[in-house]
Design a protein that fits this description.
The complex is a heterodimer. Chain A is mostly helical. Chain A starts with a helix and ends in a 14-residue tail after the last helix. Chain A is built from eleven helices and four strands, in the order ααααβββααααβααα. Chain A has one domain. The model of chain A has no long low-confidence stretch (mean pLDDT 88). Chain A has helices spanning 2-31, 38-55, 60-88, 93-115, 140-162, 164-174, 176-181, 186-211, 219-234, 239-259, 265-279; strands at 120-121, 130-133, 136-139, 214-215. By secondary structure, chain B is an all-alpha fold. Chain B has one domain. Chain B contains 13 helices and no strands. Chain B has helices at residues 7-33, 38-63, 71-88, 93-119, 124-144, 168-188, 191-201, 203-208, 213-239, 249-262, 267-283, 291-305, 318-330. The model of chain B is unreliable at 336-341 (pLDDT under 50). Classes of the chains: A mainly alpha, B mainly alpha. The A-B interface holds A 34, 82, 85-86, 91-95, 97-99, 101-106, 108-110, 112-113, 221, 225, 228-229, 232, 261, 263-264, 266-267, 270-271, 273-274, 277-278, 281, 291, 293 and B 61, 65, 67, 118-119, 121-122, 124-126, 128-130, 132-134, 136-137, 140-141, 143-144, 204, 249, 253, 256, 260, 264, 289-290, 292-293, 295-297, 299-300, 303-304, 307.
Chain lengths: 293, 341
């Protein structure tokens, strides 16, 4: 019974990773960029929720859309200001990666100046206490995390596979030159992808604040890194892979905490990343890309 | 011809060596006479340590062309090795310190081999991430081991410098920085260095030319790890207290920023940016909370408009400048033949 409980708790944690990993994976699929600043978009979302709920004293159902809108806007602005020029000029990958790191440092320090370095505590977002499910007693936060993440993923699935925008996204990631010739405005698609990924990050921020009731400017660092590990694990560029990787990582982390050591969890997570990269660099569901000479 | 040892490059080396020695003795005299205060001496030592780190990272990032995000991990290994050795070996510090530094380099190089063999099979983004992962693992392990004293870290690491004699740490760090710069310059002009540059330009073509790419990639990576380890050893003895949080991802990024701003592939660029980026924040204490904000904006702007860094791959050569100046004054026609030192 304990084991099942740890697995379910892990799924709750993994829901957050999965939502963040989706942002990494979609952006990577389209522009082949590891968006280091993605973790900090979660931080932006977290602070938005804090501002709306604590500073302005408004209810949570107003905080959610506000966080999603601000995060999407931040994502689009970051893409427009910091990446667009490099993407258009087909700059070296290393320059893109360093720029992304610059954006990450910028966002963190800008928020540190605005809100200070000390963590801000949040009120409980959905105060439902414990939920009994058969013989299991689960925290309501875990259940909410899993349910919300499943809904978001179902929505994303519909968006990618059933809408014109989603098809344009797939086309751009397959071959952006050909997509351009087919009349797709690839710049707009890239912008939209950043907005979508950042919106999902805002939802992840909500789940994070629901699970750990505090925000701080560096919260995106480790969360972003772990979500990235999840994306690589599932196969970066693959949407179902990111979900799978996120849940898997959450469960591994929860089990490590329960049975091995609480302090070594991060080492285990990165160990998994390294083993995965060495055994199957394309990840669980990733496709093999052949290198042309 | 780059790499050919002509009479002119020989003269260039001599002029550079003379300049390095001159700067050294000027600084040393000032330090011993108290013209440069103890705090300023500490900053100078940190400048030298950061130059060493930036130049070593430039070997991997600029000359081999691979982005590495875990350089602070090697520094940590070196710092702890040297500190543990000098604290526990029972030898006099004057003997123990240099031995500790060599051991620090060797320990970091061993880690470099263990990490490099699997990691260098990957390229680009994946290599960046895997080195980041290794750097974090090293830090987490140092946080949990008994010998490293966990998150508390090691304290009471003796410094060679004292109130009476303020210069030894500076002498060591300056000598190491000068030696590392010399090694880098000769390395990039050697057969091995050219092989490494060929890998940067086109790995597949280099392999087709018969270059053992795995060997040279590992060679550059391990050499950089060794130097970072030595720098970490000096760093530990300079600041006296170390704990794993001093060698986190932020530290790796800081070294990377020095390399990137100076110019990926330009050793003189790394020297200049490491000096400025270490010295400037110390002078502008009130500005410290804006430091990273300003760095990040500069970083983004440089990447957007000059992705190769401020100097690119250009090297500043003082002898060449002197020669130009001399020619201008004496109005002699320029000689044919190039080559810089």
């Amino acid at each position: 019974m304990d084991f099942i409980k740890h697995v379910i708790n892990g799924l709750g944690l993994g829901s957050i990773y999965a939502l963040v990993a989706l942002g990494y994976t979609m952006v990577y699929g389209i522009v082949k960029l590891i968006n280091f600043a993605h973790g900090d978009i979660i931080m932006v979302g977290g602070y938005m929720i804090y501002v709306v709920m604590v500073v302005l004293g408004l209810p949570v159902w107003l905080a959610i859309p506000a966080a999603i809108i601000i995060c999407s806007l931040t994502g689009m602005i970051v893409e427009r200001v910091a990446y667009r020029r490099l993407l258009v000029h087909n700059a070296a990958r290393i320059s893109l990666l360093i720029t992304a790191m610059g954006v990450s440092i910028f966002l963190q320090n800008a928020f540190m100046l605005m809100f200070g370095t000390d963590p801000k505590s949040m009120p409980p977002l959905f105060p439902y206490g414990q939920i009994k499910l058969g013989g299991l007693e689960l925290a309501s936060t875990t259940v909410i995390n899993i349910v919300v993440s499943l809904i978001m993923m179902f929505g994303l699935h519909l968006l990618v596979n059933k809408t014109k925008m989603g098809k344009a996204m797939t086309a751009t990631s397959e071959d952006s030159e050909a997509a351009k010739l087919m009349g797709i405005n690839t710049n707009r698609i890239i912008s939209f992808t950043f907005a979508l990924g950042s919106g999902l990050a805002a939802v992840a921020a909500l789940l994070y604040c629901n699970t750990y009731p505090q925000v701080k400017t560096t919260m995106g660092n480790l969360l972003g890194l772990k979500a990235f590990v999840a994306a690589v694990f599932g196969g970066i560029g693959s949407v179902p892979g990111a979900m799978l990787g996120g849940y898997f990582l959450g469960v591994i982390e929860s089990l490590t905490k329960a049975y091995i050591s609480t302090t070594l969890t991060d080492a285990v997570v990165f160990g998994i990343l390294i083993i995965m990269l060495l055994v199957k660099p394309t990840g669980l569901l990733g496709r093999n890309g052949k290198e042309k000479v | 011809m780059m790499g050919a040892f002509t009479k002119k490059t020989g003269v260039y080396y001599l002029v550079n060596a003379a300049l390095v020695l001159l700067l050294f003795f000027v600084l040393l005299t000032f330090i011993n006479n108290g013209v440069i205060s103890r705090t300023s001496t500490g900053i100078l030592t940190l400048v030298c340590i950061n130059i060493t780190l930036a130049v070593s990272l430039n070997l991997v990032t600029g000359i081999l062309g691979q982005l590495v995000l875990g350089h602070a991990g090697f520094m940590l290994v070196g710092a702890y090795t040297a500190a543990l050795f000098t604290k526990n070996c029972g030898l006099d510090l004057n003997i123990a310190f240099p031995i500790g530094l060599v051991l620090a380099g060797i320990a970091a190089a061993l880690f470099g081999i263990v990490i490099g063999i699997p990691a260098l099979r990957l390229r680009g983004d994946y290599l960046a991430i895997i080195t980041l992962g290794f750097g974090e693992i090293i830090r987490v392990i140092a946080n949990n081991l008994k010998i490293t004293n966990g998150a508390m870290g090691l304290s009471d690491i003796k410094s060679l410098s004292s109130l009476k004699n303020p210069s030894p740490m500076f002498v060591y760090s300056y000598a190491i920085a000068a030696l590392v710069i010399f090694i880098m310059f000769t390395f990039t002009r050697s057969r091995h260095g050219r092989a490494v540059i060929a890998i940067r330009e086109d790995e597949i073509a280099a392999e087709a030319m018969g270059i053992n790419t795995t060997y040279y990639k590992l060679f550059a990576f391990v050499l950089a790890a060794f130097i970072a380890g030595v720098a970490g050893g000096v760093f530990a003895h300079q600041i006296g207290i170390i704990d794993p949080s001093k060698f986190d991802f932020g530290r790796s990024v800081e070294i990377l920023i020095m390399v990137v701003l100076g110019g990926m592939g330009s050793i003189t660029g790394s020297i200049i940016s490491a000096t400025v980026l270490t010295w400037l924040p110390e002078q502008l204490r009130g500005f410290s909370q804006y430091r990273l904000l300003v760095y990040s904006i500069i970083l983004i702007i440089v990447m957007l408009f000059k992705p190769s860094g401020l100097l690119g791959r250009y090297e500043i050569s003082i002898p060449a400048l002197l020669e130009k100046l001399y020619r201008k004054i004496s109005k002699k026609p320029a000689q044919t033949g190039t080559g810089g030192a």
